[in-house]
User: Fold this.
Amino acid sequence: MNNLRIYNIPSFFYIFFHPSVIVCLAVLLLSSCKEEEELISSVNFEEVEFADFVELDFPYITTSMDARNLGASFPDDNISPRVLAMRLGNEAYACFDTDMLRWSVAWTGDFLPMVTMAQISYKDFYEKKNEIPRIGGTPHFATGQYPGWSSGEALFEDPRPANPYPGAPSWGPLDPSMARWNGHYLSGEELVLAYEVDGVAIHEVPGSRDTGQEIVFTRKFKVAPGDSPLYLTLAEVRDAEGESVSPLLGNLKKDGKITSATLQVPGKNAEIKVVDNRYLVLEVAPRDKELTLAVGVSQGGDGNSGTLEGALADMELDFPDLKKGTKQRWEGEVLTKGRMAPDTALFVTDQLTLPVPNPWKRNVRVVDMDFYDQSKAAIVTFEGDVWILEGISEGLDRLSWRRFASGLYEPQSLAIVDDEVYVFGKEGILRLHDLNGDGEADYYENFSNIMAQSIETREWASDMVVNPEGGFYISKFGSLDMGPETSSPKSIMGFRAGSQHGGAVLKVSADGRSLAMVASGFRGPYLGIDPKTGILSGSDQQGHHMPSTPVMLIGQGDYYGVAATAHREEIPEPTPPLTWIPHAVDRSGVSQVWAHSEKMGPLNGKMVHLSYGRPGLFQVLIDSTGNAVQGAVSLIHAHFPAPTMKGEMNPGDGWMYITGFALWGHASDTLSALLRLRHTGKTNVMPEKLQAREGGVMIRFGTELEREKALDIANFTVKRWNYQRTEKYGSGHFRMDGEVGEENMPIAGVEISEDAKAVFLVIPDMLKVDQMEVEYDLMAADGTAMKDQVWFTVNDLPIPNLLAEGFGEVDVDGTIADFDFTLASNEEEALPTEELGEELFIKMGCIACHAVDRETKGKQGPTMKGLYGSVREFKDGTSMTADEEYLHESIVDPGEKVVEGYEGEMPSFLGVLSSRDLDAIVLYIMSLGEEG
Assistant:
């Protein structure tokens, strides 16, 4: 019967409903849907409207808090570098200090002003006048600089070791044997805090209730069994009159106001106590089973137990099942389409388009990333968000972005270990857990907060790399003497005391519970690590006591020259870097990445150094054949539209991915970008090896050279100079005899290797020196132009072994002996011009920090437009007219007169620029017009 029905159906119906046709139609329909998807293909940050930094449906942000000046009744010593600023409903807020496990302050009215660096620049991208947060409303109660919880007795003094620097506060968490912050859970609209006191696990749900007469701040607890009494200081009121109404109620009265604490607890396992007419304390008795209870704290009521008990009477003491996770907050994905770069150079950068705009109107300034696999990665932003990116493919045709976590404190590092996401920010290292598999983090675990963090705004948690043997290496900025002044006394020029871990590289154990100092004496270090060998590298920021940009191989016990961050009694001689890089070449060095991948062509197996300020990438050539390791850098030429901060190798496709965003001085096209550095296979014109030797410099290239040009001395220029490490910002250039300036080195001859891929420049009087530069204008055998520079440091001068490098017999000594040094005399310099001044203004990086028009966004220094002839007001209260003499001084000694409203962050160009160059730049600045 069924067969008859089939045969009786018209043939076109049979064809239409045939299974193969249905499959084809489904494929066509799906393809059509994909074509109709709206994929973002480009981002213009200036045209996007971003929502407020604080999202109304998220219960907290992580930040700092200065609560020292709340009034005469409140503690006068109350400052916290790490707090969860919690939104509790009813326009009520509180800060939980994760180092001290205390509520530092509770208030009503307005939330915190958005004044930290990430917050203030969130919409105004280049604003840098940040402040320390203070409450935005009316304070109700606070606690001082002592543990919130303790075991055995209540503590009202700070038990942490004193800061080694006299007069500076103690920083860092409580000793873990006393108490430890474990992390927090998201549970619906609530926040659940998790910590332990004397090994006893405690969970807390903060909240608030409006009785109609007052706001009651509520704290619900689940306390594990324990043999010792526990004490929680709820509030402190100075010079108060205490009243213990009952075991369930205590009051502190002052100036007509009553601060009260009440308790809801089954049985007689806890009570409220008034101590020293100053503190409201919760005592939890020893218990042999789990205890749940609730506390309410308020200010301004009549202290009547009925009012407060009523606020807690209907409070459920049950706790959610935290292991089940919570509902999604950020449903949906944002789809983007990447942009492939044409293969016009040896290396090109493809762009993975960022999810801007997005449904949450969230800014996305990407700072670091890591990979789960070839197509999936996690990315952290300066806003404190973590995104999951999927769909990474060769063509970047369809990229899917989903939000995974939020609320973090100015993070700059992310790593994935065993498919778990770790993020390093000012709160420490978090490990993020998706407990229910819905694609969002439910538990923000404190993997490690053992590294101290001061409240100083420039003590950045700058970098974290995975130790192949387990755990992590981290780096922290020193407390730079910039931004708002808070509690740290000044240390040396350019630095405040900060924490005992500022300006250091530290090793965090595999369980996150122990910490070891690796190296110190940094200003603002970033890191890299070779995942195969475990070799640790780093860079630092030029500034006070840091003469230029270094690239370093970091070893145990190394000291890199900043006494304020030495963290040792006897300060040794500074460890020499692998190489220095001139300021004009790399204004701000950041991290490194090792390119272990055949897909990276000539970079395979090499270290790549990232420059924020340029922006751009350098290959690092390491020479370890002598008695001291030394290195060289040369540019990786490609287009970098945004600052380059962190790099990561994709283990699947073998290419390098680069993240970064703009805030400080830079020369970028856009605010932020996620890039892929791709090798195209074109002629490799990069140097592959450099050796500084007695009698000269050997450079090996990745391609055969055109011999005639390679043997022409006129196609090479060699310079050298030293730096001076002083309290001034950066260093000028100095000759070997200490005089100001650079030395142009004579080249006695050029030798070429038998395979025509290497040259040896015969240079008389080779010496150990901080910086050398070789500029060349060559040609590959296939006609490809090879005009470039290489910069290196000479820490050692071994005897050259040119036979081993593929050269024939070379008589270096004879070539030098026969050289006519009169041929090396310098030509007379041309006259200075405005045109030359403009060229130098750009080449030296001045354009990155100083505008030449009235638009100063993204610039660290004042505009040059109308500068000449204007009256300059200085930080020391003096003033003067900006004449030619002032302009000259500002270039060669910028720290002498710092303009009011700016930091002294400009390096000296003493010895970097000749007299003619200085005159040319001054002429150019004068050409931009006088004031008015």
